[in-house]
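ugh ok fine here u go
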Amino acid sequence: MDLHLKIWRQKDRKSEGKLVSYDLKELNPHMSFLEMLDTLNEKLITEGDEPVEFDHDCREGICGQCGMMINGIAHGPLKNTTTCQLHLRSFKNGETILIEPFRAEAFPVKKDLKVDRSAFDRIISSGGFVSVNTGQAPDATAIAVTHQTAEEAFDSAACIGCGACVATCKNGSAALFTSAKITHMVLLPQGKEERSGRVLNMVSQMDHELFGHCSNTEACEVECPQGISVLNIARMNYEYGRALFFRKK
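structure:
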């Protein structure tokens, strides 16, 4: 199959970027989207041009590094699918594909399709941990947790931190990411001890990183490759209100 690509090229965060057109012919429709970009880069290198920079790692839909906007949709047209798990058979022969980096004030472009998502790391480090001395690891059955609670915690912990929720939100909000990290820890016994300080610190850091506020459009859940529920945001708001209440007492 043949494809016409329009890719955002930007030398660094201080430079102006622009869309550059490329044509690729005789592609295998079973190639992944990133393999297609690899093919383009091999062609560019052979021709003496600079390859397109983009983030990737595991290419198994686990690490969350491969995020980009494809035809205006975070990770592309398939629901609950990361860019690396997207294949060319999802597109039509001869189609024009627009490829851009995630757009958000808190995600400055480093180069081409690569953005700086270290703001997520700082949110986690501000409180997304359990600072208790666990000693020797206990048996898995030593701490009683109901099956439902364990499943709910796992559903929240499934967030891979790709940033699609921020990129697709009209406000550039990180509420879904932050709330998922808060929720999966507060549900489990190990995370309850520091629940108040954790939510206050993480929400404060989220605001400090210049992410926008949540206005409940739920676009974040729609574009999340892991299907993280917006109910996490409701729990984060509850935990935040609870923390403020007990801090004032």
